[in-house]
Amino acid sequence: MQFDRFEKRVLLMTGALLAVFIFSMLYARSKYNDLPECLPFDKAYTEPKVTKLDDKTYQVFAVASMWQFQPAQVYIPVGSDVDFYLSSKDVVHGFFISEKNVNMMAVYGNINKQTVKFDKPGVYKITCHEYCGVGHQNMQAEVIVNDPAAR
Amino acid sequence: MNTNTQTLPVQAKPAPASLLSGMQISGWLRKVVYWELGIPLALLSIGIYHGLMQVIYRAGVLHQQAFLKLDYYQGLTLHGVINAIVLTTFFAVAFGHATITFYLRREPNKTLTWLSFWLMTMGTLMAAWAMLAGKASVLYTFYPPLKGHPLFYLGTALLIVGSWIPLFDWARLYREWKRENPETKTPLAVVGTLVNFIIWFVCTLAVAYEVLVLILPWAMGFRPTVNVTLARTLFWFFGHALVYFWLLPAYVMYYNFLPKLAGGKLYSDMAGRIAAFLFLLYSVPVGVHHQFSDPSITKGVKLFQSILTFAVMIPSFITAFTIAASLEYAGRKRGAKGLLGFFTRLPYLDPDRYLFAYLICGLFLFIFGGLTGIVNASSELNNTIHNSAWIPGHFHMTVAGPVFLGIIGMSLYLYSKISGKQLYMPKLAVVLPYVWVVGILIFSTGLSWGGLIGEPRRTNLGMTYLNPTHELFTPEWVPTTMLGLMGGIIMFIAGMLFLVVFFGTMLKKRSEKGQLDFPVSEVLHDEKRIPLFDTFKPWLVTMAVILVVAYIPAFLDATRNPGPGAPRFTPDNPVPVQAAPAATSSAAGNETIVSYRKK
């Protein structure tokens, strides 16, 4: 089978482009490694709470339900690493903090986990981005980093 | 007319595909094709009405749950199911009948063809009733544990099973043809159609299992719980291959008809075959890229399927090159000079070749659909855009780009050719797709931009986030949803005008003898037959191997990692549906509903 020389060229270009894409993805993966993690189900994570592990490390057990997040507000100091453990009490919900690229699905009987560092003060909205019934558009919570009133 | 067998001359050696001319087809086949094009296009009016309504709600023009007694999420379900499942499936079957009959010069079996039609129609009616009655506002992905009416699931399953039947009938015709012509290349359009329906059959097995084994018994109360992650994994085994099932009919048109319409030849026939078989390998084992944000699926499975998703780029790049080269050849034949001069010499607004306008507009949109798709393929970038408005921004440039424009353009073409009727308002017909392109570009710019600044998809934004009097009001999303609204209005107008042209054509009188005909392209480099690219077996085996390697670990994850299964929930109540009616816990739930409705 003989290849047309333009076709050969375009195949090489496609291969090179593909290599660039895959390399970038693997590079980002080794640098950030912030994909949602795979944890086996454990009932312990399904009670909403915020735990301070040390000065700069917090654990949040977030529970999504129709149509609210618990806890609805999370207060943390600037520079903290937060482990979000996410579960759902009912249907599928979303958990999206756009500025911090936190993006998880909350699924009944499953535990999702992502870790993120909040290095700037401010109010970060957690938006439910999966349709979860008639009250879906009401479902938002907040992470409040360095709340002046809380000092 | 039942003279079909007599009108087909028995050829000792078949003419090359490029020399095929128009052919008479039986009256019943004509009728099936008319109905299979007409029914979904009639339903499309409901589908695009709800498209318009969504951009209106989302831009904050309406701050309410429902309009004209149709709820936002009910409308969203109708929009998704009608436009993306009913229209595409009916069209793929009708177009498949047409290509197989035309290129193999053989008609499908009458009984099976009607059976397939009735199953699809009954299924569609059942699902349409459930959705219109407001008993299945679960969106087209119907993720459990949100529960819709059992007839919604049953109807969808019937639609799918009905669309399986033609594949086995066409495979019989193909084998018959192959026995008579063992040394002739199978026409590229036939390869494309068969590949498409094999992909469809394989991927829908998973969704049939999801619906019939996991969901239906649970929705009807025979099983108390459902494994949600397993159901999602089965759905996306189907859900991404679905988009290639939408796309491949458009690819068949690009390779086989577009070069001829442009006034040139197809650059390479072999390129089309390679692309088709690569789609067979890579269309299905990529579905986990819709679940990068899901729990219980290991990072390794996500990474592997992310890389496989990039591999699907290859057939699309092959196609981009081959079609561009074919268009360049056509442009130069028409006197174009310079590197890119050929772009200016194509028949963009020729009413006699209106199909060209639909196909070229679709190709143009697909450039952007492809680029945004590469972002979605990456498991790393997914964190930025997953389930945000970026996603509908992306897929409206694919499914509402090449797919939709191919479908409506070809529906008009097939109907007008087979019936022998002239177009109603031909000048409008040729301008329409350009209006659509303008609309989509504005619409998708708004959604993509919105997605990057956190705007969620599938959300009645008008009630809260785009309602200035509500505490959740988010002013950043005003410009993005306004662009969505502007683009959406333009798309709605173009879509409605198309329906006027199509049904106007239906009402016209026949002006010539109708026949099944396609603008068949000749091939510039007609490579000789290579047996590997003219047989399905080795490709099917490879497909199976890749599928097993990619999906067994995903299914193991989805079975092992989750905990208890979920009971049933309806969209309006946080309290699960009880197997036996129990009044104890429902009071609290009802209070919540009332308070949310008041807001």
Short structural description:
The complex is a heterodimer of chains A (151) and B (599). Chain A has 151 residues and is an alpha+beta fold.
General shape of chain B: globular
CATH homolog superfamily of the largest domain in chain B: Cytochrome c oxidase-like, subunit I domain
Number of helices of chain A: 1
Q: How many structural domains does the protein architecture of chain A include?
A: 2
Would you give an account of this structure?
- The complex is a heterodimer of chains A (151) and B (599).
- Chain A has one helix and eleven strands.
- Chain A is an alpha+beta fold.
- Chain A has two domains: 33 residues; 114 residues, Cupredoxins -  blue copper proteins (Immunoglobulin-like).
- In chain A, strand 2 and strand 3 form a beta hairpin.
- Chain A is elongated and about 70 Å long.
- Chain B folds into two domains: 551 residues, Cytochrome C Oxidase, Chain A; 31 residues, no CATH class.
- In chain B, a hairpin with a 2-residue loop joins strand 1 and strand 2.
- Chains A and B meet through helix 1, strand 1, strand 8 and strand 9 of A and helix 7, helix 10, helix 11, helix 13 and helix 19 of B.
Q: Keywords, please?
A:
heterodimer, A: 151 residues, Immunoglobulin-like, 2 domains, 6-stranded mixed β-sheet, 3-stranded mixed β-sheet, B: 599 residues, mainly alpha, Cytochrome C Oxidase, Chain A, 19 helices, 4 strands, disordered C terminus
